[in-house]
TrEMBL record:
Ca(2+) binds at D527, I528, G546, D548. The lineage of its organism: Eukaryota, Fungi, Dikarya, Basidiomycota, Agaricomycotina. Residues 212-567 form the Peptidase S53 domain. This is tripeptidyl-peptidase II. The keyword Glycoprotein applies. Secreted tripeptidyl-peptidase which degrades proteins at acidic pHs and is involved in virulence. Its EC number is 3.4.14.10. One of its GO terms (molecular function) is tripeptidyl-peptidase activity.
Length: 567
């Protein structure tokens, strides 16, 4: 009997000493089904190495939200008193006990993490599939996309220790899948190179704008001045992803032909992260990147523009790039006052937790006075791109309330572009700033599309701008492009020019736009009341008087916006 007792005692000692058995676990995130287009195709080797990110609980995220609205709402006594970098970081830095608890857990599994964000609320680490299967009580598998053939390692559920539930917000990549739509620019149609209807000329007048949109058309439609900005401290940022490179020669040709009143040598400043670059070979020019720099530099006359190229070093579906560019800018003392991004995904591709944490990263920049604009997408009510569906698919990140989503218009006079993505988030609740506008729309809509969308969700887009038959120069040839990719840089340029006038008058820049747009600024927009955005075998949502989930509150009217901002 003695040997048996000794053996039992030894086993008990092993159980107590083994950290994998000491911690009680609880389910943290899961999804019930594999996303459309993906299929399980195997099991990765146990020693397969994966790069992970982890979001830690922040000290006071709700306090930051309150501060953001306080400095962004025109009726507030603190309107325009944007927070400093240090003030924002006090809200988002994790508590010391959170950092200690998480690091101890990782150490138990032989993992060391490094800070990913300026405050350490995001950390990153590498681990083998075997390690994370044990650490997260998960079963990582290989999934293959039926169209692209791309493979990715994911799990459909994972757990964390029960005692860490108040410290760990999410681990990624786990249940969020790479977005196929985030892998290419948001376009409704390919470029039409050497189209005989396109004449590369500088004498565009309103009559010609019915078929070809140029900077002159945009200026005429929206009353945008051609005079140069004067404040060098006021800057505009353009996001670049998926090896889309902005070509300086294409920009020079574009400016020479379509903005001959400004120097053809006018260009952008390059910033890079995650191994980003911007090679200048003619064949390396990107349609999206060319469009974005041509319709920021070509519209926001004289505003210093930055092209921020995000590389592939840490990419797994490009959503990492969305986070990295914001952390990069959060780390800057003077980030650009306006940031435009013409890429997106479907909300269904992401877990709710990841969507929320990416959204919360945007509010950090907004609190510091940065206006963040995103193209709403080109799938109508079916998401980022047109696809089969029954229930409407919200686009991401347009459902995030802390950014301004931009839809598209077409034609002269303007009507809503049929591809303009819009709808209601299934993750984010309707924010107070748009409560009245959305409620009015839902009343007008009645029972149309009932059961296909979340009536209590955040509605998008917020505004719109021209997004069809837009002339650009790509690989030294003129052509037309369409999509909300055109609309976001155009509206961003308007905001940048307003900021220039504000700074010149000794006033703060606009910052987070939505509380202003849905109150003081609403009457300074051109209401678009015709058209719809079909998808999912429906006519989608109709555009009506007032806000609608096709063109938002409308397109910019620069003179009226100047008055609305107090100039």
């Amino acid at each position: 009997m003695v040997p048996s007792i000794l053996l039992l005692a030894s086993l008990v000692t092993l159980v107590v000493a083994n950290p994998l058995n000491r911690r009680a676990m609880q389910l943290h995130e899961s999804r019930t089904a594999i996303p459309a287009g993906f299929a399980k195709s195997g099991t990765p080797a146990p020693d397969t190495v994966v790069k992970f990110r982890m979001a830690l609980a922040q000290t006071d995220p709700d306090g930051l939200t309150d501060a953001l609205y306080d400095v962004s709402t025109p009726s507030s006594a603190n309107y325009g008193n944007h927070l400093t970098k240090e003030e924002v970081e006090k809200f988002v830095a994790p508590k010391p006990e959170t950092v200690t608890a998480v690091n101890e857990w990782l150490s138990e599994h032989g993992i060391t993490a490094q800070p990913l964000s300026p405050t350490g609320d995001w950390i990153q680490f590498t681990a083998t599939v075997s390690q994370v299967n044990q650490m997260l009580d998960a079963e990582f598998s290989t999934f293959t996309h039926s169209v692209t053939g791309d493979q990715t390692v994911r799990t459909l559920a994972y757990s964390i220790p029960t005692d860490l539930k108040d410290h760990v917000l999410l681990v990624h990549p786990t249940i969020s899948f790479p977005s196929v739509f985030a892998r290419r620019p948001v376009f409704s149609s390919p470029i039409k190179v050497n189209n005989p209807a396109v004449n590369l000329t500088s004498d565009a007048v309103p009559a010609s704008c019915a078929s070809v949109i140029t900077p002159a058309c945009v200026q005429a439609l929206y009353g945008i001045p051609t005079t140069a900005a004067t404040q060098s401290s006021n800057t505009l940022g353009v996001s670049g992803f998926i090896d889309q490179f902005a070509n300086s020669a294409d920009l020079r040709t574009f400016l020479t032909a379509l903005r001959p009143d400004i120097s053809p040598s006018t260009t952008f400043t390059l910033q890079t992260l995650d191994g980003g670059s911007n090679p200048q070979g003619r064949s390396q020019a990107g349609i999206e990147a060319d469009l974005d720099v041509q319709y920021t530099i070509g519209i926001a006359t004289g505003v210093p523009t930055f092209f921020i190229s995000v590389g592939d070093n840490f990419r797994d579906g490009d959503l990492e790039g969305f986070l990295d560019i914001i952390n990069f800018l959060n780390g800057e003392t003077n980030p650009p006052h306006v940031l435009t991004t013409s890429y997106g995904a479907d909300e269904t591709d992401l877990s709710a937790a990841l969507s929320i944490q990416l959204c919360n990263a945007y509010q950090q920049l907004g609190a510091r006075g940065v206006s963040i604009l995103f193209a709403s997408g080109d799938g109508g009510v079916s998401g980022g791109q047109s696809q089969s569906c029954r229930n409407f698919i919200p686009a991401f990140p347009s459902g995030c309330p802390f950014l301004t989503s931009v839809g598209a218009t077409t034609g002269v006079p303007e009507t809503s572009a049929s591809f303009s993505s819009g709808g209601f988030s299934n993750v984010f609740a309707r924010p107070s700033f748009q409560s009245s506008a959305v409620s009015s729309y839902l009343t007008t809509l009645g029972s149309t599309n009932a059961g296909r969308f979340n009536t209590s969700g955040r509605g998008f887009p917020d505004v719109s701008a021209m997004g069809d038959n837009v002339e650009i120069v790509w690989q030294q040839q003129a052509g037309l492009v369409g999509g909300t990719s055109c609309s976001s840089p155009i509206f961003a340029s308007v905001v940048a020019l307003l900021n220039d006038r504000l700074v010149a008058a000794g006033k703060p820049v606009l910052g987070f736009l939505n509380p202003f747009l849905y109150s003081t600024g609403a009457s300074a927009l051109n209401d678009i009341t015709t058209g719809s955005n079909p998808g999912c075998n429906t006519n989608g949502f109709p555009a009506v008087a007032g806000w609608d989930p096709v063109t938002g509150l409308g397109t910019p009217n620069f003179p009226k916006l100047l008055t609305a901002v107090g100039l």
